[in-house]
Amino acid sequence: MAKEKEEKGEKEYKLTDIPGIGPGIAVKLEASGIYDLMGLAVISPSDLAELAGVGTAVARKAIQAARGMMKLGFTDGAEFDRKRKDIIYITTGSKNFNDLLGGKGIESKSMTEAYGAFGSGKTQLGLTLAVNVQLPKDKGGANGKAVYVDTEGTFRPDRIRQIAEGIGANPEKVLKNILIARAFNSDHQILLIDKITELIKNGEPIKLVVIDSLTAHFRAEFSGRGQLADRQQRLNRYLHQLMKLAEQHNLAVYVTNQVMSNPAMMFGDPTTAIGGHIVGHASTYRIYLRRGKAGSRVAKMIDSPNLPENEAQFFVTGAGIRDEG
Ligand code: GTP
Ligand code: MG
User: Fold this and answer.
1) Which atom of ligand 1 is nearest to the CA of 116?
2) How open is the CA angle 56-59-61, to the nearest 5 degrees?
3) Rounded to the nearest whole angstrom, what is the distance from the C-alpha of residue 169 to the centroid of ligand 1?
4) What are the chain's domains?
5) Is the C-alpha dihedral spanning 267, 269, 273, 274 positive or negative?
6) pTM of the prediction?
7) What gap in Å lies between CA 79 and CA 39, rounded to an integer?
8) Is the CA virtual torsion 273, 275, 280, 285 positive or negative?
9) Of 12, 20, 80, 77, which is closest to residue 48 (Cα–Cα)?
């Protein structure tokens, strides 16, 4: 993979590869949430000067160098199309839900976030995707394996067996293709990214990474007054690592997120996603899940680069996510 990238002239650079940025400055920048060329490319010279403790001339040069090394700019239409062509899709199991997502399900090289109250179906969708990713491409899968990072201890092998049976697959085989890790705290959760990269380098055909829940540990560990900025910074960094994983290895990332009630809001649904804007910006597709009529669930597209803010009705069934209950 790295080799392939180098051949295309897309070598992975580190902050310290930029003229004027030594290890000391790199540490300072990383502490401020800037840890790669993209972070440098989008900051202003005066902000960088302040963060790094260097003059604006040095800062400006560093930013220009970062932009140059990243080849920021335009891609011709054919190249853009070629890059989009290898996108793969994983069916949710519900046509309605797939349609909400543009027709085929969640997609690779992007992150899909589902947030909603307890019991809204976030975990059930994750489990269903972990099974469906194993389907052949013409059946709505990616012919791949799933990684399931479980922060809450809610992963149930029996539930996977049941969903597998629902699509007529061999339950034991399906279970073997899901690599589960229990993350005990946010540090552990972050470390697991490296483990996932290692698995892929060792040839595991991982096409889906589920993080259930993305925010629970961060929320519990950084709950004190004055810790919000720290939490957001760590979360931001983690989200970028996840996005990078998705882009570099052409895999889909699905994350779940809790909501906190917002008593100040008097109309509509008084809930907001944890992590707020930070998570919202990083997610390519943001979906709000809630309970609907007669045992149904409703998914609402909240934020997407190319899709309308529609709603879709679906059901959580014994066989996973379906159009009908
Ligand atoms: P939290 O993790 O608590 O925030 O909630 P969540 O959004 O992850 O909820 P989850 O996806 O676990 O949804 C739980 C709901 O799914 C249950 O209340 C059931 O309604 C439904 N469900 C779970 N398992 C089954 C099953 O085997 N059969 C059916 N029919 N429904 C199920
Ligand atoms: Mg859950």
Assistant:
1) 7
2) 110
3) 21
4) 16-70 (1.10.150.20), 84-322 (3.40.50.300)
5) positive
6) 0.80
7) 24
8) negative
9) 20
Please tell me the distance between residue 125's alpha carbon and the centre of ligand 1 in angstroms: 9
Find the DSSP H helices in 149-208. 157-166, 171-176, 186-201
pLDDT tens for 242-291 read: 998 998 899 999 999 988 766 555 555 556 777 776 777 777 899 999 99
List pLDDT tens digits, range 305-320. Answer: 778 889 999 999 999 9
- Residue 119 Cβ inside 6 Å of ligand 1? The answer reads yes
Token pair belonging to 285: 């597709």
> Is residue 300 classed exposed, middle or buried when 0-12, 13-18 and 19+ CB atoms within 10 A define those classes?
middle
Residue with the nearest Cα to atom 22 of ligand 1?
316
How much is the pLDDT for 2?
43
How far apart are the CA of 157 and the centre of ligand 2, in A?
Answer: 14
* Cα gap 239→52, rounded to integer Å: 23
Two structure tokens written together for 162: 């049941």
Q: Is 320 in the pocket of ligand 1 (CB under 6 A)?
A: no
What are residue 14's DSSP bridge partners?
A: none
